[in-house]
Amino acid sequence: MVANNVGGRVKRYGQRLQQAVALIAIGTLVLSPVAWADRTALKPGWNMFSLQQDVEVGQQVSRDAERQLSMLNNSRVDNYVNTLGRKLAAKAPGEKYPYQFRVVNDRAINAFALPGGPIYINRGVIEAANTESQLAGVIAHETSHVALRHGTNQASKASAAQVPLAILGGMLGSNSTGAMLAQLGAGFAVNSVLLKYSRTAESQADLMGTQILYDSKLDTRGMAQFFEVIQAENQGGRQVEFFSNHPNPDNRIAKVNQEITKLGGSQRGYKSDSREFQDIKKYVQSLPAPPAKGTTQGLQGDPNRDDRGQRDTRDWPSDRFKTFENPIFSINHPDNWQAYGQGDAVTITPRDGLVSDGKGNQALAYGVIVNIYEPHADQYSQQLQGRGYGQQNRQQDSHFALEQATDQLIQELRQSNRNMRVIQNHEHFQLNGQPAQSTYLSNDSPTGGRETNWLVTVARPEGLLFFVFVAPERDFQNSDNIFQAMLNSVRIRR
Known about the structure:
By secondary structure, the protein is an alpha+beta fold. The protein is about 45% helix and about 20% strand. It folds into 3 domains: about 1-30; about 50-285, no CATH class; about 320-490, Mog1/PsbP, alpha/beta/alpha sandwich (Protein Transport Mog1p, Chain A, 3-Layer(aba) Sandwich), CATH 3.40.1000.10. Helix 10 (about 200-215) packs parallel to helix 13 (about 250-260). It is globular. It starts with a helix and ends with a strand.
């Protein structure tokens, strides 16, 4: 009896020991760096679209995009980018969308993602990247926009401001993506809804993209290194289109490096470069130059026709800039544009940017207006100075005053522009070291159709300094890099 009991205890002890060893082994797996890394938690924001509608929207808009863009259509390059992209997409959290990666025959450094999986990389990104991990950083960033549903999140927020919820709910429930896109103006040519991400969205895509690099065992420093490359290009006088539809968040590189530290540094055995990437880069550089700007496939190569086949006689912006200045601010603009104005107000436009509105007045169809608006609120100056005692309270008061004054300005603009609507609101950033706010509006264009108005406001003691960058919706994407360069050049008198 005693022997049997001892044997039973030994047997049970052995089983418990095996179980303990198994638990330790499982614990070792659970405690692996990938699972326990102190990564930033990210998840998609509010969205009125279904996951399937993300895919449908992306497929429909991608067909529109590929009719307008000059695609590289090179199987060797597309296959390489697709292989790398799918490796990264496999590590993206959330819905497993049908990701597809294609290369655009454009040397501008840019890339964009559509809802539901289509991702486009300009050949200029491949040519500018020094290593495979830098290219992978761009692809991971765009993949993160898809995973976080940033495109349809923007469309959802815009729709809430434009369409009564009952009507919109019926449209969404009908699965009619065509009707939704038409209602929201969300085609590729008028991409201010689907592709105009906020700085918060950009920061989220940076952080998730870094996590994807880490989980793919690629050099996590690649993304920050590529940002350094394109910032050097931008500061060297070359306008980088990436910043046109990817607004640059504050301390972008520092935040990426902080996320790398949270992850515990690069994975052991990580990959930074490959011979295949270097071969592809050399091959792309050897290919014929892309078609000249302004040409579009399917339009007999006529550079003077727009994407609808109509004659385009507008003066394209010069690469050379000159400076306009008054007692409040200075701004650089293309030297083939003219600045008109007196006092605080100025309009800067190409030769044919002002058109008749049919009522004997000149209306701005293309260019920028700058002026001072005096808010009605008596508390504006007090809020601007900050009624709180701490720095955080002063900053909150300043943002509150800026938002209130901007809302007042928009209301006054809408009184004389009945079909104007807000499509992206209250995006805070720094302009020449001062708090500023970005708002995107859509309005009737004096040339017909719709136009995009990019409103930038800065709170000043004398009032609200505001800039309105204007272009027809179909042209706004091509104009945005010029508008960004002009805004980046602004210097405000202290």
